[in-house]
Amino acid sequence: MTPSEISRLDFTPEAVTRWAPSHPRNTNWPVVYVLDDALAEKTSSTGGSLRDVYVGESRNAAVRMRQHLDSPDKRHLKRIRVIVDERFNKSACLDLESFLIRLLAGDGAYRVLNRNDGITDGDYYDRDLYRESFREVFDKLQADGVFTRSIPEIENSDLFKLSPFKALTQDQAIAVEDILEGLFEDLESDTNSTIVIQGEPGTGKTVVAIYMLKLLVDIANTVAVEDFDSDTMFSELFIPQNRALLTDLRIGLVVPQQSLRESIRKVFRKTPGLKPSMVLTAFDVGNADEDFDLLIVDEAHRLNQRANQPSGVQNKNFADITKKLFGFDDVAKTQLDWIRAKSKHQIYLLDAEQSVRPADVPPELLGALVNSAKDRHRHYPLATQMRVQAGSDYVAYIRRVLGSPGPWDDPHIPAKEQFEGYDFRMFDSVADMRAEVRRKEEEAGLSRMLAGFAWPWKSKNDKTAYDIEIDGHQFRWNSTQTDWVASRTSLEEVGSIHTVQGYDLNYAGVIIGPDLRYDAKTGRLFVDRASYFDKKGKENNKVLQKKYTDEDLLRFIRNVYAVLLTRGIRGTFVYVCDPALREYLRAFIPADE
């Protein structure tokens, strides 16, 4: 394919008027264009002032530029780059537009001014060939100063992975459309609602949560002059009636995990219409002076029931919030009850099999929540695997292997499966696995070592200490719990479940510690309680008078390893400490050679 051409001109009425008649394609040909504030100071992804950028596509670029010049939100932009190609068609232009929006949002140097009304991953004739040419367009724009980082650097960043400008899969898009249409009906009739979105690891629950919030904000802030396109997926939602329904609506995104919460706040700081203050803990919700109209709850399985909290202050806070909301300290109330009490509408995103601590909302409550949503036709399953290149079969395979209930001849135990194109290997040497993770980091980036919480965290208080020792090789746990995956020292450390749940990696090297073992005589997995060092992961619940048996603990530890083993996009490496478990798993995981 011949290379695309990029025209550059000032974003002024005079420049557009001169440019329009210079070539027939300026007024009658599908093109993609980039508007930006050329005078703004460039910045890194870590802070400072941001440049504003807008990406669009049109069959009549000159008319579209004049429309943008009339838009109050874009008059401050200074420069236009128009990308022209003799082979462009509408589908290719929509795809290139989405490609550039996603990468600009992930670059970290911009506020992307586009609204979020339907970036999808649509197929069309010769798409693969067109997408090869998109890389050439990127290279030209990067050489011209539009991009500050390479595509691999951008795609490996949290800003990219957690951006609201994502291409939705078909099941995600259908769910979002149905959910929002139902929400607008409920808002109009003043009817309370509860919606559940359910999906396994890698099906994009967090993506959907962020996407919906951005879409609602964009609908609320739409100005009539900006409504140029009517053929995007969610364009029919951008109507005055919906905008009126969203006026002054109080919306929050509840994220229980500290690390993921801070990463999302970082994205919101760079996204017009979204604010870090929208990202909340359940305690923030409970303590809020005003109620919320809508709460979107990501990783709802990590909400807490009443249990011993990490600090005395939080224990008191839990009791105080319950008293405030329900009139007395009802210990049966959970943070799920807080969310219901503080909002008229709730959207829960969950996967009960990712519950990893006794303090998490119990599975029977999650099951009741799911069944109730199904009964009211407000349940939306996500099935398409977006993270693991091996697909949803791999996720199901890992869960079956870790959940194998009986001896070797048990029919529930799966046969060894091969996942073509996915690097799934077991190592007999933890040193060799670490070396391979480092090699993959050089090759693809975003490759990390992970482990179950089977060693005490000595280095938390003694920075010179090592936490994990295996066959004479020493490792330290993650030195931070906030955004550890992107931290400066993460390649030298080992991440725990609390640093990676909700995150993607390219390659994950997972150490299955001595907390999970295998009894060859009975053919069953079992827990070594003395080798499990997550204090909150095995603590009995004195408030509710619950004692957690080894069988209860086995469920949590299985879930922990199922999460760790489904972080890798391109591959997962495994080292197993328990010799019997190692031999057992050889039947299911290909050996490193």
Structure write-up:
- The chain has 593 residues and is an alpha/beta fold.
- It folds into three domains: 151 residues, no CATH class; 213 residues, P-loop containing nucleotide triphosphate hydrolases (Rossmann fold, 3-Layer(aba) Sandwich), CATH 3.40.50; 194 residues, no CATH class.
- 36% of the residues lie in helices and 18% in strands.
- It contains 20 helices and 20 strands.
- A seven-stranded mixed β-sheet has the order 12-20-17-13-16-15-14. It has a six-stranded parallel β-sheet with strand order 8-7-9-10-6-11, with helices on both faces.
- A hairpin with a 4-residue loop joins strand 18 and strand 19.
- Helix 3 packs across helix 4 and helix 15 runs antiparallel to helix 19.
- The longest helix is centred in the N-terminal third of the chain and has 20 residues.
- The radius of gyration is 25 Å and the shape is globular.
- About 3% of the residues have low confidence.
Poorly predicted residue ranges = 40-48, 405-411
Query: Helix/strand-derived class?
Result: alpha/beta
CATH architecture assignment name of the largest domain:
3-Layer(aba) Sandwich
CATH T-level fold name of the largest domain: Rossmann fold
The largest sheet has its strands arranged as 12-20-17-13-16-15-14
**What is the domain tally?**
3
Helical fraction equals: 25-40%
Oligomer: single chain
Number of strands: 20
User: Class of the largest domain, according to the CATH hierarchy?
Assistant: Alpha Beta
**How many strands, what sense, and barrel or not for the largest sheet?**
7 strands, mixed
- Return Rg in Å: 25 Å
Number of helical segments? 20
CATH superfamily of the largest domain: P-loop containing nucleotide triphosphate hydrolases
* First-to-last CA distance: 41 Å
Strand content: 15-25%
User: Looking at the structure, what is the overall shape?
Assistant: globular
Mean pLDDT: 90
